[in-house]
Design goal:
heterodimer; A: 194 residues; mainly alpha; 8 helices; globular; B: 156 residues; 7 helices
């Protein structure tokens, strides 16, 4: 069963200690606990084809460096930093092509939020839904980088505000401010203001 | 009845704190709740779509375990950042005192010996100052400039 967000860090310490002694089974358990989070984080920076490889790379790096992990931060925070660094390194290596999450662009005008149909809708409504999600992705791409990063880590990588702050080494108030600005701008772009 | 303003609706969408009266209002006002839910549903749809792209976890775990080296290489503990300027200052002091002592004892002898000692000490200082990476965090960038450059190209 996939651990919940609040469960992620609980029970890591004994596994980390064993992994630091070279225990592959213990590290395998850490992988099982955190691989979903690591992949979700990588997916916010890289395309779907690259996210799996980056997540694997991050977890292998974590094993090779686990001897240096001093447990002053939560294991999940340390691991998420490695994942983000791995993605940023990859973006740098490929010539600064930038963060892109492949989604088809919607062609709707303002007010798209109100057009999102309910689940179980007919094919036409699903097309509208698909376009609405694509438009949201496009609008996210227009956000300032830090706002986009925080918005995606919060809502798509399912990280708590405090975790984002610790991972990005910023104050939690900064995370709240940037998140508020991101949502405000997305609502405005998507026509939520009526 | 006073409805929530745009900032409060935005805060509710972002799951940030609201004042108690705003929470109560949101619980009872269909219009305000609809505005929040519309945006949240769209975000949830996108998250579900992204989650649907997830790899096979069992397969991924097996591939990771196959890539692990046989042993973990423990790194030696490094000096904390706050210690480095103190070490540098101590080294400079040592150089100064050392030079003074050499001049006193050698009585103005040749410059070769003091220069060698200075080079050795400065090399040690350089080594201390160059050792600034924190394991696992080497390239995390607390600033925004680099992110802006990385993410600044076109639409998805």
């Amino acid at each position: 069963m996939t651990p919940t967000r609040s469960d992620l860090s609980q029970g890591d310490d004994p596994l980390v200690l064993r992994a630091q002694a070279g225990d592959h089974d213990a590290f395998g358990e850490l992988v099982a606990r955190h691989q979903r989070r690591v992949w979700l984080v990588c997916r916010q920076y890289l395309g779907v084809d690259e996210a799996d490889a980056a997540a694997q790379d991050s977890l292998v790096k974590a094993f090779t460096r686990i001897g240096a992990f001093n447990r002053r931060s939560a294991f999940t925070t340390w691991l998420t930093r490695i994942a983000i660094n791995t993605c940023l390194d990859q973006l740098r290596r490929r010539g600064r092509e930038g963060l892109r999450v492949e989604e088809p662009e919607g062609d709707e005008g303002p007010g798209i939020i109100a057009q999102v149909p309910d689940d179980g809708a007919d094919p036409e409504a699903r097309t509208l839904q698909h376009q609405a999600v694509g438009r949201l992705a496009s609008c996210e791409d227009e956000l300032p980088a830090r706002q986009r990063e925080i918005f995606r880590l919060r809502f798509y990588a399912e990280m708590e505000l405090e975790e984002i702050a610790a991972t990005l080494d910023v104050h939690v108030g900064t995370v709240k401010t940037q998140l508020h600005r991101a949502v405000h701008r997305l609502r405005k772009e998507l026509g939520a203001y009526r | 009845m006073k409805h929530l303003d745009d900032d409060q609706i935005t805060a509710a969408v972002a799951e940030l704190e609201l004042e108690a009266w705003a929470e109560e209002h949101l619980a009872s006002c269909l219009s305000c709740r609809q505005q929040v839910n519309d945006m949240r549903e769209l975000i949830d749809l996108r998250r579900d779509r992204l989650s649907g792209e997830a790899p096979d976890w069992q397969r991924q775990r097996q591939e990771i375990l196959l890539q692990l080296p046989s042993t973990v290489v423990a790194r030696p503990r490094r000096n904390p950042r706050w210690l480095r300027p103190m070490l540098a200052a101590a080294a400079v002091l040592l150089v100064t005192v050392g030079l003074g002592l050499m001049r006193l004892t050698a009585g103005g002898g040749g410059p070769e010996a003091p220069e060698l000692a200075v080079e050795q000490i400065l090399a040690e200082v350089d080594a201390v100052l160059a050792d600034e990476a924190i394991p696992g965090f080497e390239s995390i960038d607390p600033g925004m400039d680099d992110l802006e450059e990385l993410f600044s190209n076109g639409a998805s």
